[in-house]
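Build the 3D complex.
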Amino acid sequence: MNFFEFAWSISPKLLQGSLISLELTALAISIGLILGIPLSLGRVYGNKIIYTVTTIYIEAFRGTPLLTQLFILYFGLPSIGIMFPPFTAALIGLGLNSAAYQAEYFRGAIQAVKDGQMVAARSIGMSKIKAIRYIILPQMFRLVIPSWSNELVLLLKASSIVYMIQVSELVSVGRQIASRNFRTFEVFLVIAFIYFVIVEVLNRILHSVERKIKIPGL
Amino acid sequence: MAQTILKVENLYKSYGKTEVIKGVSFEVKKGEAKVIIGPSGTGKSTLLRCINQLDQIDKGQIWLEDIEITKSHIDINQIRASIGFVFQSFNLFTHLTVLDNVRIGPMRVREMKEEEATKISIEELKRVGLGDKIHNYPAQLSGGQQQRVSIARALAMNPKLILFDEPTSALDPELIGEVLEVMINLAKEGTTMIVVTHEMDFARSVANDIIFMDGGFILEEGLPEQIFNNPKYKRTAKFLSKIT
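Done.
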């Protein structure tokens, strides 16, 4: 079997693995998005207590390796009676970790919105919450897309690490195949190519979204 | 005697250790155009921001009609909704069209229906001469046009009073006229307004009353003819001779 025949023969299994990777990434980025927005708002607008709590969360997750976080979730928590199936543990770990990074990107984008926008919103009688909802967040989302795309791509690639806690995603499937026929080099060339294609597609989608919601004249 | 719209009494404001406003009192009657002039850094803009409490005051009282708005239990959002504010740097919402900039207040603060808010907003935009720009975005407009949109944004809230904070200072000279023209018309139609400005011709021809501020105090207050032709203080005369 030459390389292309071999690649073709292992592709059904690898595609199954990539679907798991994509599913994990999509769910984890969503968890991160849903948690990241309130975290960033806490850091920008929160009182001392909220600011401290959100800052500790963000620093804790950004300051420790993802692998350590996953091991604590999957191998550590059972010792105090909390057990998750591999996929769930991976999802929680990646989601909580991404929330911390996304929160920092959102914070940067919120702070990039000019001060006058909030002042003007308050001057027509909007409460702070309404001003955030109608004026600050819509501008924040436009500003954050470039760095958020980065986080999405990093998360997809970082998700390969969850093979360490027995999730059958792309890399893990590759290792199983390679352990049977020892064509490690070729297997991982194909895997690298699959990641590359997915990343390119994601980048293009986000680019076109960015162009679509660009503010005319700005 | 016209009804009093705004009354400011013994207002103090500091930033850190710097005292910016040192005991200011004045009144604005319904339909009055009051112009505040004076050197830079004498607290004119701060005074405006204190009136609708975009800046917190340290001491003193402010009444809007018969409500003391400096009391702690007052819903300041409701008060601000009835005081228009026009900024030096326009501060239009960059992600919204001209129409949405104007109707977002009526819709989200006054909770008006969309059709009604749209109708009012288009009327106000026509009033400032921008009926044909309602679907443009702020960044597609000139500075003069942007400032006129921000005046329409204030008008759409049907305010009791509009505060203008150096509305023409950020504009190219050839764009100042179109904004002043809108303001002159508002004053003629009886809009109650307080204008901080360095446009002395505007002050002379439009103001019912002029306040000269210096060093955080009101040095003198009077009719335009009196302030411009016959100022009480040397300080006022010196300022006017420099600027005109």
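Residues 102 and 205 of chain A are 19 Å apart (CA to CA).
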